[in-house]
Amino acid sequence: MTRAAFIALSAWIAALGLSACPTDTSQLSVSYQRYTYTCCEGSDFQRIWSPGETLTLHWVAAPAGTTAGSGQRITLTAVLTGPYANVDASKAGGSSRVTVQAAPVVTTDRAGVDEVSSIVLPIDLPDGFYNLADTIDVSSGKASGASVINVSHIAGP
């Protein structure tokens, strides 16, 4: 076989191979690691807080399998209400005199990094037990939780 014939045959085989490749990429999907969030670390609550301090809430990211498509927006919110006379009263709900809210944290289920919310406790915040409601809002729904924190003008341990 001559060199020209070899080159022609090689080009023909390459063209035949490329023509078998699909050009429609709409059927291709890319999967990615998803993450969910939970609030919060135990150390966020296991102490007595004083007015004027900043309550820092740690949103913990955890792997939640893989999925195809684009990432979903996640909004993390935290709201503090109270004061209540005791833990049982804070869990029962009812009317509260004070509501303090953290700025919403917006992320995606692709981010996979722990997030932080901060609530500055007003200097004139009354002593008592406060309900801390957290919400994780994803386009597919919401998940909520609640914890209790204790606020006192007398410094804790």
**Any idea of the CATH class?**
Mainly Beta
Structural class based on helices, strands and sheet pairing: mainly beta
| CATH topology assignment | Immunoglobulin-like
Low-confidence blocks of residues: none
What order do the helices and strands come in, and which of them pair?
Blueprint: H1 3-19, E1 31-39, E2 48-49, E3 54-68, E4 73-84, H2 87-92, E5 98-101, E6 105-108, E7 115-120, E8 128-138, E9 141-151
Parallel strand pairs: 2-9
Antiparallel strand pairs: 1-3, 3-7, 4-5, 4-6, 4-8, 8-9
What does it look like?
The protein has two helices and nine strands, in the order H-E-E-E-E-H-E-E-E-E-E. The chain has 157 residues and is mainly β. The protein has one domain: Immunoglobulin-like (Sandwich), CATH 2.60.40. The protein is elongated. The mean pLDDT is 84.
Relevant terms:
157 residues; mainly beta; Immunoglobulin-like; three-stranded antiparallel sheet; elongated
Offer a quick outline of the entry.
This protein has 157 residues and is mainly beta.
